[in-house]
Amino acid sequence: MRLRHFTSSPDSQIRIHPLSARERAMKRQEAMEYGCRRSPSPGSHLLALVPVSTSNLLLSLSPLANYNLDTNEGTIFTPNTTATIGDSDNFLKDQFPALTLQQLAKINSLYPSNAYGEIRYICPGIYISKKYNELNIPIWNYHWDVVDPAQGEEGLGVPHTIEVNAIWGPNNTNGAAPASYNTTNAAIVPVAQGYWTSFVRAHNPNTHRFQGTPHWDQYGTNEARIHFVTNATAIETVPEDQRSRCSYLSSIGVDLQQ
């Protein structure tokens, strides 16, 4: 059943409005953000909390963690009316007021799209994974790239935290799961659940992973991560162009004052 929201008409009757894929994604994200502030949740918040500063070198944290990214992290947050570089710059400036015109120009040269997703989520995840590795703390990084047809058609791609519907199961997320997680993408559900339950049970995603799935390598000097794709999950390395973009973003991280 699709998630719906309700409004009262002037004659006090209740009307039911089906939510679009974008609206459902936003409501799911609102629930996730609420939960992340108050209790453990899947992904980077499951077994370890990451401090804002790396001055403590992460030594006070659990010796095990995983860090996530989705292919299109920023799409559910950016206005769907964005049509020009100016629109994009205005949005980024609203999110990061300390950005300079020079920095915006550099970002524009690096990104045709998806800038916000890498600035806010993807590149910090890669940076933190590197720091764990430098301290010889076990860290597993993943790239969730399971495309739901409806979200793809709406321009959302693979949005932020969509993988929770596979981790918990599509029937356990209050109707927020994309329909394909019960149909064409159903095969990814036991794969995700195998790794996550193994991580919880054995502090290693591989010990009890789903039969036939690849060994999930730790994030190391080769920057390996697992790439989740329905019926094609495999190990990949962070692409060189993404490494280059993230290197620049890390270099201005302090300037952003976040």
Report on the architecture of this protein.
- With 258 residues, the protein is of the alpha/beta class.
- It contains 8 helices and 6 strands; from the N terminus they run ββαβαααβαααββα.
- The strands form 2 sheets. The protein has a 4-stranded mixed β-sheet, with helices on one face. A two-stranded antiparallel sheet has the order 1-2.
- Helix 4 packs across helix 8.
- The longest helix is centred in the middle third of the chain and has 20 residues.
- The radius of gyration is 19 Å and the shape is globular.
- The N terminus is likely disordered.
List the helices and strands and how they pair.
Layout: E1 4-8, E2 14-18, H1 21-38, E3 65-70, H2 85-95, H3 101-110, H4 115-134, E4 139-144, H5 149-153, H6 164-167, H7 188-202, E5 224-228, E6 234-237, H8 240-251
Helix pairs in contact: 4-8
TL;DR of this structure?
The protein is an alpha/beta fold and 258 residues long. The protein has helices spanning 21-38, 85-95, 101-110, 115-134, 149-153, 164-167, 188-202, 240-251; strands at 4-8, 14-18, 65-70, 139-144, 224-228, 234-237.
- The H-and-E topology, N to C, reads as EEHEHHHEHHHEEH
Instruction: Profile the largest sheet.
Output: 4 strands, mixed
Number of distinct helices: 8
Poorly predicted runs are: 1-17, 27-58
What would you report as the Rg, rounded to the nearest angstrom?
A: 19 Å
Amount of helix: 25-40%
Mean pLDDT: 81
Spatial strand sequence of the major β-sheet: 3-4-5-6
Number of strands: 6
| Cα separation of the termini | 39 Å
| Form type | globular
